[in-house]
C-alpha cells in the first residue's frame, strides 16, 4: 500500500521523491486511515477499526517522531527562532 503510493507519486512527479515528499505521502495515507476509522466506528464495525488502526501504527513507524507538547511549549521560551536585526551603521555625519 505505502510502496504503491510512493511509486505513484514518483511517477506523477517524474523524479525521485525526497524525504519530505515521502513523509507527506505517508502522512496522507495515515489521514485516510484515520478518516476510515472514524467512519467504521460510526458504522459499528470494530473488526475494520482494528485493521485500520494496525495499518496506522505501521505507517507511523516510517514517519519521523512528532514533537511532544513539552517540546512545543519549550519553543516559546526561545523566541521562536527569531532574532532582532543588528542596528544599521550610520552613513551620514552629524553636524
Topology pattern, helix = H, strand = E: HHHH
**Percent strand:** under 5%
CA-CA gap between termini: 74 Å
Major beta-sheet overview: none
- Give the CATH architecture of one domain: Orthogonal Bundle
Q: SS-based structural class?
A: mainly alpha
Counting DSSP E segments of at least 2 residues, the number of strands comes to 0
Structural overview:
With 95 residues, the chain is an all-alpha fold. The chain has a domain at 2-63: Orthogonal Bundle (Hypothetical Protein Yqey, Chain: A, domain1). The chain is 61% helix and 0% strand. It contains 4 helices and no strands. The protein has helices spanning 2-13, 19-42, 46-60, 69-75. It is elongated and about 80 Å long. The N and C termini lie far apart (74 Å). The model has no long low-confidence stretch (mean pLDDT 86).
Question: Keyphrases for this structure?
Answer:
61% helix; 95 residues; mainly alpha; 4 helices; Hypothetical Protein Yqey, Chain: A, domain1
Task: Summarize the helices and strands and which ones pair or pack.
Layout: H1 2-13, H2 19-42, H3 46-60, H4 69-75
Helix pairs in contact: 1-2, 2-3
Short synopsis of the structure:
The protein is an all-alpha fold and 95 residues long. Helices cover 61% and strands 0% of the residues. It has a domain at 2-63: Orthogonal Bundle (Hypothetical Protein Yqey, Chain: A, domain1), CATH 1.10.1510.
Amino acid at each position: 500500500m505505502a510502496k504503491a503510493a510512493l511509486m505513484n507519486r514518483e511517477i506523477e512527479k517524474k523524479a525521485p521523491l525526497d524525504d519530505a515528499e515521502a513523509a507527506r505521502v505517508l502522512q496522507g495515507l495515515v489521514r485516510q486511515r484515520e478518516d476510515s476509522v472514524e467512519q467504521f466506528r460510526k458504522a459499528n464495525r470494530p473488526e475494520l477499526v482494528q485493521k485500520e488502526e494496525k495499518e496506522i501504527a505501521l505507517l507511523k513507524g516510517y514517519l519521523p517522531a512528532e514533537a511532544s507538547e513539552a517540546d512545543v511549549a519549550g519553543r516559546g521560551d526561545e523566541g521562536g527562532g527569531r532574532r532582532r536585526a543588528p542596528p544599521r551603521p550610520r552613513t551620514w555625519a552629524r553636524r
